[in-house]
Design a protein that fits this description.
Layout: H1 2-22, E1 26-27, H2 29-39, H3 41-61, E2 67-74, E3 93-102, H4 108-174, H5 180-214, E4 222-223, H6 237-247, H7 249-271, E5 277-282, E6 291-296, H8 306-370, H9 376-411, H10 413-417
Parallel strand pairs: 1-4
Antiparallel strand pairs: 2-3, 3-5, 5-6
Helix pairs in contact: 2-4, 3-4, 4-5, 4-7, 4-9, 6-8, 7-8, 8-9
Amino acid sequence: MAFQRKYKILGLLLMLICVQLNAQEIYSLKKALQTAKANNTRLKSEKFDINIAESDILTAKLRPNLSFSNESLQLINSSEFTSNTSWYNGENRETFWELSKPIQLAGQRKNKIEIANKNVEFTEKNYAEVERHLFLDVAEKWLQVWAAQKQLDIIDIAKDNVDSLVKTNQRRYESQVITQTELFRTELLAKQYATQFKTAKQEVNSNQRELGYLLGSPKEVEIDTTAHFLFKIPDQVNDLVDKALEKRSDIQSTKSLIEVSKSQIDLEKSLAYPTPEIGVIYNPQGTVPFLGISFSIDLPVFDRNQGEIQKSRHRQEQAEQQLKSLKKELYTEVTVAHENYKVQQQNKEDFKELLEQSQTILNNVKHAYLKGGTSIIDFLEAQRSWLETQQQYYDVLESYRQSYISILYASGLINQLAL
């Protein structure tokens, strides 16, 4: 008996473990964004840009290599050879060895390191902008799953309500309380709701799978339909604009690009200076050794890097103009998103009364119908009206949540939600 009891306990433990392994994780919007940030394949690919930019810092810190050269001159005519020597004798040969190194002037190495560091900062800010666009896709897909699930839920409620009435009417028809037409009308509506339920279920599954792809999961994911959004939206649009100017990644990326452009100008100016090359020479002429130094330098008569300096200045001006344009675009986007959010918030509050009224009407008409106080037509009309009102309410609620996501995206706060 004790042996059997141990096996039962072991079996229960294995069942619990299997249930936990198969249990599907439920995602709030915040958790979905965090998961996408960690697992999305597109982000993983984009992140290599940061590693590539960091490699440029290593390259910038490297100093120029030494240059080693050799020249050997051999007497051709044997008549010119030193007496009693052959052609391979060192007295009939002159050898030239040189070891030299370029010298970087005018802070060229320092400027290369500085621009490499600023390029890393720019790449990181640009990566944050890629994240912002992805988070919008994830949030909108999360909302589509939420909307599809809510539509499925209310159709399921309507379906259960009509299915129970079908059973009641079947008994009432057998008792000859209602006509066959009333029964058929009830059954017809039940079949319509069953078809709608299948379609809505497939819509949920499709959106869940698409959300799973964005989260880096190979299967459908479930969301927390009861989750509330976290950020409190400021009442004044100027407060939101200030937050956007501080947080939005495209603004930060463009500011970083301006700094890169400034450093690029400094680098190009330093590259206008010639790079001298200093070396040591060992030159055996015959058997007589000579030792000396070498020095070479370009003479900047024609090429003083004018074109690259001018190009860098234009890039700085372009980045500054881009920043001005982005600020205007930001103000417009945030203002429109804020106004839409306020409208949708009011619509959501206004619709609650209609929701309660439709539920009350359906309850009263159903009760009256079952008591014989009204016709099947009144009940079916009340049922359809209830379903339409529910669907309209969740359409309004979806628009409200969409406006919330839009304002998070426009203000740049959506990146903060993923932290």
